[in-house]
Amino acid sequence: MDKARKIGINKLQTSEEAEICARMMSGSEPYITLRRDYESSLKMISDPLREIYVARSGGELVGFIIIVMRGALIGYIQSICIAAEWRGKGVGSELMDFAEKRILLEAPNVFLMVSSFNNGAKRLYERRGYKVVGELKDFIVSGHSEVIMRKTIGPAADFVKRQLHITSARLFI
């Protein structure tokens, strides 16, 4: 990435940002094939149970990532979307780095799903250390699977034990 085009990542702040993200998502792959239109994209981005982080360069919103930190898959990267003209410039990698650090503060696993037709994204996730752990056939649209991937720093029980140790150590400092 060009050093002059530094990327800043912050939590989604305004409804205007949410609308930009929804337009970006609904107008690009894989979301077109997954039939995620503007309204459903905006609803997802506006859901207070999700954490949305936006990437900006020079004030321009160039991408975003949606994280879910509740439910069965704590630490789930639900969606990542990069503006078409910014793809291949490292924005997605920066958002992934940010999300992984954020998630691994609270959970030992990072989960995501990638559509079976999105081979480039699957290869990227594999290079980043994600492993396939399952497949949901015809999960979002007929004829395509969602491949479940996980990156881990260890079992959940060990992570909880480590977190308890760190917390109790802080009490005595």
How many domains would you count in the coordinates? 1
Name the assembly state: single chain
CATH class: Alpha Beta
CATH architectural designation: 3-Layer(aba) Sandwich
Short description:
With 173 residues, the protein is an alpha+beta fold. It has a single domain (8-171), classed as Aminopeptidase. The chain has helices at residues 15-26, 38-45, 91-104, 119-127, 156-171, and strands spanning 8-11, 50-57, 60-68, 76-82, 109-115, 131-137, 145-152.
Structure write-up:
The protein is an alpha+beta fold and 173 residues long. It has one domain: Aminopeptidase, CATH 3.40.630. The protein is built from five helices and seven strands; from the N terminus they run βααβββαβαββα. It has helices at residues 15-26, 38-45, 91-104, 119-127, 156-171, and strands at 8-11, 50-57, 60-68, 76-82, 109-115, 131-137, 145-152. The protein has a seven-stranded mixed beta sheet, sandwiched between helices. Strand 4 (76-82), helix 3 and strand 5 form a beta-alpha-beta unit. Helix 1 packs across helix 2 (38-45). It is globular and about 40 Å long. The relative contact order is 0.13. Residues 164-173 have low confidence and may be disordered.
Secondary structure layout plus pairing:
Blueprint: E1 8-11, H1 15-26, H2 38-45, E2 50-57, E3 60-68, E4 76-82, H3 91-104, E5 109-115, H4 119-127, E6 131-137, E7 145-152, H5 156-171
Parallel strand pairs: 4-5
Antiparallel strand pairs: 1-2, 2-3, 3-4, 5-7, 6-7
Helix pairs in contact: 1-2
Task: Give the tags.
single chain; 173 residues; alpha+beta; Aminopeptidase; 34% helix; 29% strand; disordered C terminus
